UniProtKB/TrEMBL annotation:
Top-level division of the source organism's lineage: Bacteria
Name listed for the protein in its UniProt record: SHOCT domain-containing protein
Domain SHOCT: 230-252
Top-level taxonomy: Bacteria, Bacillati, Bacillota, Clostridia, Eubacteriales
Keywords: Membrane, Transmembrane, Transmembrane helix
Species of the source: Clostridium beijerinckii
Segments crossing the lipid bilayer: 6-27
Length: 259
């Protein structure tokens, strides 16, 4: 009786192992096929190996309503390959198992000089989540038996733990000019860091900072030019070509330009 029982267990175990082996082979075959399909798709669309994956929510007024796996998150949008080629940024939709592997995808090609700026906007916060601190009745009973009332109080307290949860509702916006029209692309929040890597001089903070620097340089140049003009006027006054009143008036007009 027991022999038949153990024989049945061994047979069942063998069947389970066989099923797992078959499932593993199928998964392996499916994985290899997917890799080959991605390779074929990338070759047909001339997507370079060094391209990066970027999550796109809206491209030129077209909003994507399907979900895409981006890292460990499921987000509303589509995945694109992005890369920099010479003085252009190129976007090409990434391989999708629901589309033909030999599909020639439409690319979005943006000359870098046509990019106005990119920025990240929206709500971002880190929430502190406190758990515990309640009453552990089992611990209180055990503590009371061992150490009386004080033990019951101490053992009855649940441990307080604090964890942090990141809430990121931001989106990354890229604005550019195409055929004399301003267009925008909306990316996942995380795409900001990738754009910062590809086109750092188009980040809004960088642009604003350098505008101030250029403005200051321009003012410095203008100021030097004005002081040079005043020096020349002084020479004309010393030579008797200008009167003291004329020199003072012209000097005042020049100084007003830098005040």
């Amino acid at each position: 009786m027991f022999g038949a029982f153990f024989t049945g267990i061994l047979i069942a175990a063998g069947i389970v192992i066989f099923i797992f082996i078959i499932m593993g082979l199928i998964a392996s075959s499916s994985g290899k096929e997917k890799i080959e399909n991605i390779k074929l798709y990338n070759e047909r669309n001339k997507i370079p190996i060094n391209s990066k994956m970027i999550g796109c929510i809206e491209l030129n007024s077209e909003k994507y309503q399907t979900k895409a796996q981006y890292g460990n998150k499921m987000l509303l949008g589509r995945l694109f390959n992005i890369w920099k080629e010479e003085n252009r940024i190129i976007l090409c939709e990434s391989f999708n198992i629901n589309k033909p592997k030999d599909l020639i995808a439409v690319k979005t090609i943006i000359p870098i000089e046509n990019i106005k700026f990119f920025t990240r906007e929206g709500e971002y916060r880190v929430d502190n989540i406190v758990q515990g601190g309640g009453v552990n009745f089992k611990g209180a009973i055990v503590g009371g038996v061992i150490a009386g009332e004080a033990g019951a109080i101490l053992a009855g307290r649940e441990k307080i733990t604090t964890t942090q949860k990141e809430v990121d509702k931001r989106q990354t916006y890229l604005y550019y000019i195409d055929n004399n029209q301003e267009k925008r692309i909306v990316f996942f929040s995380e795409s900001y860091d990738l754009l910062l890597e590809l086109i750092p001089n188009k980040e809004i903070g960088y642009i604003e900072k350098h505008k101030i620097v250029e403005f200051k340089k321009s003012n410095d140049t203008q100021e030097k030019s004005i002081y040079k003009d005043i020096e020349e006027l002084s020479n004309l006054k010393d030579k008797g070509i200008l009167t003291e009143e004329e020199f003072t008036e012209k000097k005042k007009m020049l100084l007003e330009k830098i005040q």
